[in-house]
Amino acid sequence: MDRVSLKNIExxxxxxLEEVKAQLFLEDGQVTITKTCLEHxxxxxxxxxxxxxxxxxxxxxxxxxxxxxxxxxxxxRCNLRCKWCYLPDKNTEFDTEKIKDIxxxxxxxxxVFSGGEPTLRKELxxxxxxxxxxxxxxxxxxxxxxxxxxxxxxxxxxKDAGLHYVILSLNGFRQETHxxxxxxxxxxxxxxxxxxxxxxxxWTILSVTLVKGLNEExxxxxxxxxxxxxxxIRQIRLRNVxxxxxxxxxxxxxxxxxxxxxxxxxxxxxxxxCHNNLTxxxxxxxxxxxxxxxxxxxxxxxxxxxxxxxxxxxHCVNLVGISNTLRMFxxxxxxxxxxxxxxxxxxSWPTASNIDLTECRLFCIDHVTNQGEILPFWEALxxxxxxxxxxxxxxxxxxxxxxxxxxx
Length: 408
Ligand code: SF4
Ligand SMILES: [Zn+2]
Known about the structure:
It is a single chain. This protein is an alpha/beta fold. It has 14 helices and 14 strands. The protein has 2 domains: 3-52; 69-383, Alpha-Beta Barrel (TIM Barrel), CATH 3.20.20. Helix 10 packs antiparallel against helix 11 (308-320). The model has no long low-confidence stretch (mean pLDDT 88). The structure holds iron/sulfur cluster and zinc ion. Zinc ion (ZN) binds next to loops.
């Protein structure tokens, strides 16, 4: 067996979620992880089956950039019950003053209101306005399943409150996809939500969560839809489901799987993608995150060929149509924040079993835990899970004790 040690890292015990020392290996073409928990023994798992591709995505710098995004859950309630929800509905939430206090004490440029489903929180418009008025240099982002955005007046209210961006989960256009994930057909509601976002010209990021064997093929349609609607859709975020929160299934989609999927949908080669990965600019800085600017990548493709400029613009016409291409052509004369852009963001979620915590801690997006602590994104999610595990254990112990008392 061909096995090379790559580095020592921090990881988690997949059973108790305690932090443990771990080691990464390149082993028969795969990147693997091995670790030992003093209580639960040794574990090994695959970090990515395409080791060479994975290693090309890992940051060379091992220093964290100042975190620039904060995911702030303002409720744990939700109007859906998705199979993979990473924040199980607990019917608890911070009070408004606590949320404002977190906002006042954070240094992040992007405040992402999340949940549960943040639109269920009646104070959401007030919170958006709070950020806009007190911190005009910051951006407000809403991470939502979009059901409430099917109401035109509500979208207008959010726009008037000062909302900049919406990250809308859109896992496909097929009824079966919604049915499988959320147990109901959401196609009409999502369509209406998109129409309203377009109408009020709110910059939108489509967030696609991939489930193996269910919606991988839909990505190409979502990509094409995004390009056709580049006036308000600026980005597609692709992520895999992972065993965090309610989701328990081990059909893991790896970073390299998603890179290959994007390569197929966009006709960009893997080499082109790796060379243009914006995470290497030091800002995003983690192997779990890959960002590609479609137009910048294409510009580079044609930069050195004869008639390169013509080839680039005709490629743009094919992708986004004539009027959008013309708009892009004259954009250098427009203010930067109104210029069109289209990015694909690949967000690779590790499991507790294969997480490289050291790498994840480099990620410049933080998340607020259920207890109000600000931690690097995945660390916060697993901390919530660890707390949930210990609450479940405690309540099982209480039930056993009660049974014992009533029996005796
Ligand atoms: S994944 Fe999002 S939309 Fe689905 S139940 Fe969880 S919070 Fe709600
Ligand atoms: Zn353990």
